[in-house]
Amino acid sequence: MKLSIIIPAYNEEKLLSGCLQSVQAALAGCGRPDLSWEIVVCDNASTDATPRLAREAGATVVREPIRRISCARNAGAAAALGEWFLFIDADSRLSTASLSAVLAAAQSGRCVGGGSLIDLDEKPWWGALLVGLWTLFSLALKWAAGSFVFCRADAFRAVGGFPPELAAGEELGLSRKLRLWAKPRGLDFLILTQPRHVSSGRKFALYSPWEFLKILLDIAKSPQKSLRDTAVHKNLYDGRR
Predict the structure, then answer these.
(1) pLDDT in tens, 67-85
(2) Lowest mean pLDDT: which of 17-21, 168-172, 209-213?
(3) Residue 25 and residue 221: Cα distance in Å, rounded?
(4) Cα separation of 87 and 59, whole Å?
(5) Burial class, 207, CB count within 10 angstroms (exposed 0-12 / middle 13-18 / buried 19+)
(6) How far is Cα 62 from Cα 76, in angstroms, rounded to an integer?
(7) Which of 25, 93, 20 shows the shortest CA–CA distance to 61?
(8) Which of 42, 178, 195, 239 could form a disulfide with 76 if both were Cys (CB 3.0 to 4.6 A apart)?
(9) The domain spanning residue 44 has which CATH number?
């Protein structure tokens, strides 16, 4: 089995090396001599040392000039050669246990892919509430978080990947498409509950509670319009690092 680990990255020179080190450690620790793998970093028009650091770590680097996370994930997947894809974010850390859970699900032959419950390394009390709310939605609706999505490569291509028109919430679109593809084939879409995948909570330090509240209210008022609106993308992905 060959696994492609795909990491979109825009100006991630501060955190990318730590992410790639965690990936290497997880691959070494999973004890799977039958596993072949590659790491693909999609440089989403970075202006810092992100692509150089990725190459120095041995990753395959591709470039996506359109500054949109869905486009970056899809560009990374287009260059990937694995039978299975695992998408993680550049500000997250992959654990051996999480990787082992993905490999076990893949080799079971019973699932098309899935996601994982998530946690953040640092978060204020209201950030913890948001993570808890996301956990409820993720479990109830089988939504994968964008920082951790895995799936069969053939299924990903069959459904057209992440919806490129979405400025945010692209992982929800892919989750839905994969579930629909899997159902007539008798396959599951799994949300792994243990261990939780850990990402950076930096957005809670870089963005105010009022900025988060405004974004959430806009999405609640008009979900489809908001998730396609470049203003949402600018608010959440405006380059603050």
Answers:
(1) 889 999 999 999 999 999 9
(2) 209-213
(3) 43
(4) 14
(5) middle
(6) 7
(7) 20
(8) 42
(9) 3.90.550.10
